[in-house]
C-alpha cells in the first residue's frame, strides 16, 4: 500500500517577492531504523523583487524533514518519492511550499486483537453452516416421524372399522391393539429432537463439557468422535429440552 505525507513550509527570502521565475526541488530522504523518514529538501530558483524589475535574485534553501511512521506498518521495503510540489507567494513577504511525500510498499501489520476477531468471525460462519446442515437432518427426521404417525393413524382407523364389523371383538381387545401400536410408535421415535453445537475452547476438557450440558460419554459418543477432540472441534450435544 502507499501513503501520502503532506509537508508545508514558509521560506523567507532576503527581499520582497513579486514573482518566481524558476524553481526546483531536490531531496535526499531515506529510511532509518525501519520506522523513520529523514533527510532534507533543497529548494532553489530565481525571483523578481517587483513587477518592473529586470534583474532576478537567486535563492537556495535547505529544509530538514524527519517523520516517524506508525508502528502498525512494516516499512522495511519502503520506497520514497515526491508525489506533488507547488508553491504560493504570501503577501510578497515569503514563499510557502507544499510538498507531498509518497511512501510506497507499506505493509499493514494486523494486531493480535484483529486476528482473534477474524478467527471468531470465521468460526461463527462455519458454525452457522454446520447448524444449517444439522437443521436439515432434523427436519428430514421430523418429516419421517410424521409419516410414521400418519401410518399408525391409518392402521388405527382400519382396526376401528374391523372392530365395528365384528361384534365378537371386545372393547378390551381393541384397546390392547391400539396400545401396542402406540407403544411401537413411541419406541421408534428419536430420543432427542433438539441439538446444540459446542466449539471446544482452549484448556477445556470433555469432563467440563459433559458437566455443563449434563450428558454422558455414551450420549456424546453417539454423535461425535471423542478420540479426536482438539481446540476448535464442533461437538453435537443432544438435549432433552
Structure notes:
This protein is α+β, with helices and mostly antiparallel strands and 241 residues long. It has 4 helices and 11 strands. The protein has helices at residues 112-165, 171-188, 206-213, 217-223; strands at residues 3-12, 19-27, 30-32, 36-48, 57-68, 73-74, 79-90, 94-104, 107-108, 194-199, 234-239. The strands form 4 sheets. Strands 2, 3, 4 and 5 form a 4-stranded antiparallel sheet that branches. The protein has a 3-stranded antiparallel sheet with strand order 1-8-7, with no helix packed on it. The protein has a two-stranded antiparallel sheet with strand order 6-9. Strand 7 (79-90) and strand 8 (94-104) form a beta hairpin. Helix 1 packs antiparallel against helix 2. The mean pLDDT is 80.
Poorly predicted runs: none
Strand tally: 11
Order of helices and strands: EEEEEEEEEHHEHHE
The share of residues in helices is 25-40%
Shape: rod-shaped
What would you report as the Rg, rounded to the nearest angstrom?
Answer: 41 Å
| Count of runs of 4 or more consecutive helical residues | 4
Structural class assignment: alpha+beta
> Sheet with the most strands?
4 strands, antiparallel
- Straight-line N-to-C gap: 53 Å
Rounded average pLDDT: 80
Per DSSP, what share of the residues sits in E-state strands of 2 or more residues?
Answer: 35-45%
